[in-house]
Amino acid sequence: MTTTRRPDDPDALRERVRDGYSEIARRGGDDAGRAADAARRIGYREEELEAVPDGANLGVGCGNPTAIDRLEPGETVVDLGSGAGMDAFLAARQVGPEGHVIGVDMTDAMLEKARENARKAGLDDIVEFRKGNIESLPIEDESVDAIISNCVINLSPEKHRVYAEAYRVLKPGGRIMVSDIVLDRELPARVLESIDAYIGCVGGASLRADYLETIAKAGFREVRIDREASFLGAISFDDPAVKQAMESLDVSLDEARGFADAVTSLHIFARK
Questions:
Q1: What is the pLDDT of residues 147-191, one digit of tens each?
Q2: Domain count within the chain
Q3: Which residue numbers in the chain have pLDDT < 50?
Q4: Contact 228, 49 (CB under 8 A)
Q5: Whole-number pLDDT of residue 196
Q6: Domain holding 170: CATH number?
Q7: Radius of gyration of the chain (CA)
Q8: Residues 9, 12, 15, CA angle at the centre, nearest 5°?
Q9: Of residues 244, 268, 248, 249, the one with CA closest to residue 259
Q10: Is 4 a member of any domain?
């Protein structure tokens, strides 16, 4: 079986990612139980799942960035790649009515879903969602106290630009709390070159050392790993979507299980 090769051009790659996540947004909420189970496996507490509106959890994260470091009342927070809004809404609970949360996403279908969820949750006055690329944030310089992101930066073909932008918009002393995917060894070329694996947060992942170096080169200090876990170890190989992905990549169950020690989810903290 052949797989569709991911494009080399960054803009074309972003367009394919946008298409993939538009489809996820359109079918989101079809299996709320599966999404809730996935969220529990990656670190969300039951009270957090109950606190967000139906449809905000699409089951596509790799950690809980709002659990890495406490957000303070009154702070301004940006969520990179905010999707249907789950982490933005959890951040809003911490910053309170005096705070402000800005979700940034490039996908119209996700923005529509997130704004609808904000209305349902009565959080329109605290949370807003802006269209934009995370490599070029629609945010003013030094205007943000904290940045969160959940399994999104690995999807960027220009991760150095993402972290440079994060550094630009943060106030001095501001911090980032990111859940993301890294590789502890290279994966087979057919996986790394596949657009399906890229959209699935594996094909675009950097090697661990390279990823952490990118953060440091952007100017961040106090870079630390708060928590790590096997990314593939947190998924169910019985999940129909996982089985379909394995089939599209021509990857056997034994091979997929062998990747488990190479694909890691990190909770990362760093300060400007």
A1: 999 999 999 999 999 999 999 999 999 999 999 999 998 888 877
A2: 1
A3: 1-2
A4: no
A5: 75
A6: 3.40.50.150
A7: 17
A8: 150
A9: 249
A10: no
Residues 84, 89: Cα–Cα separation, whole Å: 10
Question: Concatenated DSSP letters for 150-204?
Answer: ES-GGG-S-HHHHHHHHHHHEEEEEEEEEEEEEESSPPPHHHHTBHHHHHTTSTT
Q: Where are the beta strands (DSSP E) in 19-134?
A: 76-80, 100-105, 127-131
Residue 192 lies in a domain: yes
In this structure, the chain runs to a length of 272
Q: Which residues contact 204 (CB under 8 A, 6 or more apart)?
A: 154, 155, 156, 157, 198
How big, in percent rounded to 5, are the helix, strand and coil portions of the chain? 40, 25, 35
pLDDT score for 95: 98
> Is residue 66 in some structural domain?
yes
Q: Which two tokens stand for residue 48?
A: 């957090």
Residue 2 lies in a domain: no
Q: Is the dihedral of CA 128, 129, 135, 139 positive or negative?
A: negative
- Structural domain that includes position 63: 10-271
